Amino acid sequence: MSERDGLRIGVYVCHCGTNIAGTVDVRAVAESAAALPGVAVSRDYKYMCSDPGQDLIRQDIQKFGLNRIVVAACSPHLHEHTFRTATRTGGLNEFYFQMVNIREQDSWVHEHKGAATRKAIDLVRAAARRVARHRALEKSRTPIHPAVLVVGGGIAGIHAALTLANAGKHVYLVEREPSIGGHMAKFDKTFPTLDCAACILTPKMSAVKNHPNITLWTYSEVTAVEGYIGNYKATIARRPRYIDEDLCAGCLECIDACVFRQAKVPDEFNEDLSRRKPIYVPFPQAVPLVPVIDPEACIEFHSHKCKKTCVTACGERHAVNLRAEEKLERIDIGSIVLATGFRAYDARRSANYGYGVYPNVYTALEVERLINASGPTAGEVVLRDGRTPQTVGIVHCVGSRDENTNRWCSRVCCMYSLKLAHLVKERTGAEVFNFYIDMRTPGKGFEEFYQKLLSERVHFVRGRVAEVTDWALDSSEEGRLVIRVEDTLAGLFRRIPVDMVILSTGLEPQPDAGDVRRLFNISSSPEGFFLERHPKLAPVNTFTEGVLLAGCCQGPKDIPDTVAQAGAAAAEALALIDAGSVETDPNTAYVMEEACSGCKTCVPLCPYHAISFAQAARKAEINQALCKGCGTCVAACPSSSIGQNLFEDDEIFEESEGLLAYA
Amino acid sequence: MPDAFEPKIVAFFCNWCTYLGADLAGASRLKYAPNARVVRVMCSGRVDPQFVLNAFARGADGVLIGGCHPGDCHYQEGNYKALRRFRLLQRLAEQMGIEPERLRLEWISAAEGDRVRTVINDMVEKLKALGPRRVGQGPDRPVKDLAEVS
Q1: With an 8 Å Cβ cutoff, is A638 touching chain B?
Q2: CA–CA separation, A447 and A478 (whole Å)
Q3: Is the CB of residue B54 less than 8 Å from the CB of residue A659?
């Protein structure tokens, strides 16, 4: 503010209960601020974000004729919006406001009250100097394109897509695999109700296929995303299936006709427990029910000498097209729901459990397929040599809660281990042992399910399994697998011989989660799961506006939680669409024409091509609609003739000088 | 007893990665040295070399710039621009007699609360060893020949 005499700043220091006041002497901060030039009123208050706290600002604006507001409280990422609104409703331009973070970056990270208080005083002084320079600005509005892109066709993506489509919005659902369904399609039963996974999932899959508002692209991946909230442009690469989806009737005669009489290719959907042909559908209920040709396995793609019996079998339909090529689709959307799921932990990494060494060590997903009626053994739980196991050991926490592999709890393993214990016992009558560290059953009906298992005479041994070995010490262990474990409840080491070991593998981020994260410009937690905007209050939002999260890509969770989160993500997208437009911060850069020398330094710096060079005037020009407000051009301009709203040079100079000034 | 030297650090943190990392450090209640004061900018690419030099001129003992990891910039490549300027600024600062330890650029993501702690603690330790920034003193080493630099 040029006329410094007219400056009337109100400073508000929040206690946040004891969150701030416990470490920062808030009274001292407010008193110190009261002595700063231009400060008309300075107060401390228990909860500034409460209604009375905000009223305080509004009343003071009227009472003391304030024209600038500073609130020292939590992170601006939490409550900047709240206090800007209070500033506006109090009668001031909302950008005559500056927030000071004395919680996340002060009281919560320091122990010494004197030092924390001095830091708060410095930060408030800096803000008071900065806010004096603030200009009145207007928020801009961006229209929201009503279509939504949902990435990933597991239960999360399916549920989000259906919710949006049922509300009348257009959805593009993109799935990398040949069919939607995700991990859930592999399960036989779901815990704790033991309802059949297929029975509850396949109707939703068909609904996706038949919904007029859903464009389903399977065997496809998003390869490029640009734009911003409301106006994203995405490119989707649709890999060739070599069978035209529009022409195929789903009779599957081409599969029967394939020159490969024997299925020879490991079947990914059955966790490689069975074989498929080069032309295949992943599973009988696949959506779309259109075969795929695997060019790696099909001899036509190698030798070009195949008799092409699949083409002949298709006859007049001409759906088989061996010359099909990748197709690129470009779409406009307003928001994006990421539901890219998880990968199961690779049990080979825990070498002490012998997966991949002993044939009778299985992963839980393999056993899911064995139990499944449409799986490789039609639902029979048998060992690789065809025997029915008499004794089964289920090892919990493989690749979870482990310093050497993954430290997090995968949340679903206890419950699915109990489910597998129940199902294996039901199908085989085998004696079943569960080896667990802690039994974690926090969910509706989960603890009751555990109690039911206890009454079913399933054995529970508390202790992390040390090793699975085939080294027999006596005749009872001969030809079997021995589980070595410390039974921490009995206080002794045990060797338990079993016929079959099931490893309850944990949930990990997808191997390419890092690429997906960069593609959509979002952050991830250290372990690689996508980072939500706020763990409690914005669990499906990301820091990139308009990009939402659903399901296990955000962290391990079970099906009920996944569906709930997918519904929440869809609701967030709907809220955006129905609002029609979104307010964006006016933090764009602009050229001060009179100072611009036309050197063009800024032009190539802009990643959004927002800066152009006006030939006639020989000046740079910034397109306000394209500028996203990073400020890189501002810092680079040699003549300081580019400004940035909200982050002006003089504002930042004042702030940093304020930090270093001592009253 | 005279007060022990407490270095003053001005930190320019980008809004999307390092500032959030510092917020995460708070939410995780990690404890670190109270010497750094953060100025939030939208992107490390916004950090004008003048901000840094001005901070030194006004009495900062150290300046820390925090941005997103390479490839992770919210604005695609602002952090590369920051790096480019930083390299040049380092050379300039050295010629002005500002020791290299006083000027630091760190990539800290929104998930790396712990890294905020270790970086600030480490910088405070180094600055304490170095002592207050001495104003008006030339470089300890002779300025490199210009031809050699280019």
Answers
A1: no
A2: 37
A3: no
Nearest CA among A40, A33, A35 for reference residue A14 = A33
CATH tag, A589-645: 3.30.70.20
Number of domains in chain B: 1
Q: Looking at the whole model, is its pTM more than 0.90?
A: no
Does this chain's domain A140-239+326-341+516-582 share its CATH topology with A344-508?
yes
Whether B110 sits inside 8 A of A531 (CB atoms) is: yes
Residues in a beta bridge with A612: A621
Distance of CA A351 to the CA centre of its chain: 30
Tell me if B78 and A630 make a contact (CB, 8 A cut-off).
Answer: yes
Cβ-contact A337, A550 below 8 angstroms: yes
Tally DSSP H helices, then E strands, for chain A.
16, 34
Q: Do A607 and B40 lie within an 8 Å CB cutoff?
A: no
Query: Is B43 within 8 Å of A632 when comparing Cβ atoms?
Result: yes
Q: Which of residues 44-103 of B touch A (CB under 8 A)?
A: 45-51, 54-55, 58-60, 71-72, 74-78, 81, 85
CATH dotted code for A3-137: 3.40.50.960
Amino acid in the structure at residue A444? K
How far apart are the C-alpha atoms of A582 and A301, rounded to whole Å? Answer: 50
Domain limits at B122? 9-149
Cα–Cα distance between A345 and A557 in angstroms, integer?
15
Percentage with pLDDT > 90 across chain A: 94
Whether residue B137 is predicted with pLDDT greater than 80 in this model: the reply is: no
> How far is C-alpha A142 from the chain's CA centre?
25
Q: Does pLDDT of B64 surpass 70?
A: yes
Give me the residues paired with residue B38 across strands: B11
- Which residues in chain A have their CB less than 8 angstroms from residue B26's CB? 75, 103-106, 108-109
ipTM at complex level: 0.91
Range 544-563 of A in CB contact (< 8 A) with B: 544
Band of the pLDDT at A151, cuts 50, 70, 90? very high
Domain boundaries, given as residue ranges, for chain A:
3-137, 140-239+326-341+516-582, 253-317, 344-508, 589-645
Interchain pair B54, A647: CB under 8 A: no
Please state which CATH number belongs to domain A344-508: 3.50.50.60
Q: In this complex, is the C-beta atom of A118 within 8 Å of any C-beta atom belonging to chain B?
A: yes
Cβ under 8 Å to B: A residues 583-622: 587, 605, 607
SS3 A495: strand
Asked if B42's CB is within 8 angstroms of A629's CB, the reply is: yes
Taken in order A478, A482, A487, A492, the sign of the CA dihedral is positive
- Asked if A656 and B30 come within 8 Å (Cβ–Cβ), the reply is no
